[in-house]
Amino acid sequence: MIWVIIIISGLITFAMRFIFLTPVMPTNLSPAATTAMRLVPIAVLWTIVVAEIVLDGGKIADFTTNPRLIAAFGAGLIAWRTKSVILTIGCGLPLLWLVEYLFA
Amino acid sequence: MTSRWHEFKLGITDGLPLQLGILPFGAVFGVLGIESGLTPYQTFFMSSLLFAGTSQIIFAQLIALATPVAILLGSVAALNARHLLYSASISEYLRDKPLRWRIILAYLLTDEAYAVSILRYRQKPHNRMMHYHLLGSGILLWSVWQIATLVGVLAGNAIPAELSLGFVIPLIFMAITLPLIKSRVEVATICTSTACVFAFAHLPYNLWLLIAAIAGIAAGTLTSVIAPKGDAS
To answer: Do B72 and A5 touch (CB under 8 A)?
Structure first.
């Protein structure tokens, strides 16, 4: 069953990459549609970021004892200023270890 | 012949710096795939069947939470909707190529390969062989992604949970999304999505994921229509 879901997911992914390379699709999207498409990665990825930080087992974690929240603020600043994936991981992960160590 | 090889090599060299981010990302997926209950074969072949990092990670997380298939496929589709935009914007350079080329290049059209090759297409002179650039950046990315997944699959059990390596995922996504915030349109998007996670976290089947994403996109699009002044793009 999982193999079937993986293959269908692969076909969906390929279809989305291929569809505008076929002559049947219009090349011009409306400005609003273009904006909406541009916002897709921001909205989806950001939702995942928030969920990974504030949710714990499907519930909102207690703000006062959540080390991920503190580490995420620091890492978010680095991500915003440097735009570097490597620096964000390189500083954010040790920061989480430090906060977890201090909280423990 | 020289021009083909030149474009192919240029695609590889242009894509090289990005591999620093791809290696840990792929390894994290390999670890996460095994942890979520997928077999090593399923985890490894997902990297060649989907070849879409973010979707693969969400796939693994939703499988671990026993999410219904419809929600899972909907999440993969929603996450990959951005590829429609890549496909649309790069089509003017690839439309006249034979079908087999368009199939191969569509398969290789990831965020990173697109980012590297669209820059070449827009900033450097046209060349009949420039589709080899996307082939080069795409094949490099594909190879590194498969190797990184394999490393994660093999090393999975050796990495202790205390290292909180799962935290790398929100870190990578923050590094991708935060620099994209340039105007009130993006601010409206992330504020709405954040509020929706809090408001709908209690819903079953991770429905909050789709609700928060769609609400954020709607809020940003609406902002761009009503108040376009702050939009930098």
So the answer is: yes
Site of tokens 């390596």: B165
Q: In the prediction, which pLDDT does B233 show?
A: 46
pTM of this structure: 0.71
**Containing structural domain, residue B38:** 2-162
Q: Is A7 in Cβ contact with B83 (below 8 Å)?
A: no
Check whether B47 has a pLDDT greater than 70. yes
Q: How far is CA B117 from CA A8, B94, B122, in A?
A: 28, 12, 9
Average pLDDT by consecutive 10-residue portion of chain A (104 residues)?
Answer: 94 93 74 83 86 84 87 94 86 93 84
- pLDDT of B104: 96
Domain shared by B45 and B148, yes or no: yes
Indicate if B156 and B203 belong to the same structural domain: no
**Which one-letter DSSP state was computed for residue A55?**
E
For A59, the enclosing helix (H) or strand (E) is: strand A59-60
Do B6 and B102 lie in one domain? The reply is: yes
Among the three residues B162, B196, B222, which one is the final residue of a domain in this structure?
Answer: B162
- Number of domains within chain B: 2
CA distance B25 to chain A (A): 10
